[in-house]
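Re: [help] complex structure
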Amino acid sequence: MKKHIKNNVYWIGKMDWELESFHGADYSINHGSSQNAYLIQEEKTVLIDTVWLPHSTEFVDNLQSEIDLNSIDFIVMNHGEVDHSGGLPELMEKIPDTPIYCTASCVKSLVGQYHHPEWNFKVVKTGDSIDIGNGKKLIFVEMKMLHWPDSMATYMTEDNILFSNDAFGQHYAVEELFNDKADFCHLWAEAMKYYANILNPFSPLVKKKIEEIQSLNLPIDIIATSHGAIWSDNPMQIVEKYYEWSQNYKENQITIAYDTMWDGTKKLAHKIGREISRISPDTKVKIFNIANHDKNDIMTEVFKSKAIAVGSPTVNQGILSSVAGWLDFLKELRFKEKRAAVFGCYGWSGESTKLLRERLESAGFDVIEPEVKCNWNPDEDDFNKATEIAKALCQDTN
Ligand code: FEO
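Output below.
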């Protein structure tokens, strides 16, 4: 069933309440999600994006129940990733000659995934437009690396709708579609999680793109994202928030992330946390066992933090695999202007703090000198060193 957005524009996507993870298992979904596709029925009928591959048949059946598929004049693919292009192969079997407007990179991604070079691609770049009748146009804006090279947004004149695709979205199911109907806390938490875990590596480009869009002075009444709530109530609030988030965002928070074998490293983690609270009561402290907590949620807390402390015991001259994998993910997200400290227990060789230090430096963190390299279980001297870490993190970042 299509749902009304504005005038002759409708939502025709998939409200995916059952989704539990995204990008394989790399992104946790806790409140459902959606793949938002849109149908424009002006003098021209235009479909913007489709849905994820497993929902392809449902999508095409749904579309067919609303319109004659042969009445679709154009398809706009803002992005080739399978959560938006998955409905395309089944749809194109029914309407094989329909023009598909997308970027040159999107042609590559669609052909690479679905092996149909014969599809009627129309390559567009920033500033290109198509008339859709009734005095309205669709104008294309490349959104390179936000978050794929092929990403694009489409602006509809007169109705002033920006179909932004992934940008400004959230993995969050809002059956009523619009941001003013969403649970406020969930909406903002999911928007930040999405930014921290997907868009943060491209923050300099986010900043530039927002400045470019603002300089065009386009009236924007609705930001129609491809996931989660559609921003219709004060849509520019999410643009302003993205601008703030894109500039090495931090709050007065320190996050401690660790894993432990026999609880020695855990004791140090909690000692550092207690000491930060004692030394700087206004600083928020969050403590997570990396093996037991959702990695995306921890990354969102890192995004908010001005500093982190990371702990692992030494195992087989290395660090725990949970911490090693988490550090790989941390590096991918390219956080900047954040400090870090390292700590960990060992029995025999004690490489963990050196390895943690190297890994955090290569992930772009400024690692402070004080550390706790504790032989066996922490004693008073080790707890004093934990206090030194807390002091240094508070001093360095206040
Ligand atoms: Fe929602 Fe990049 O796909």
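The chain has two domains: 3-245, 254-393.
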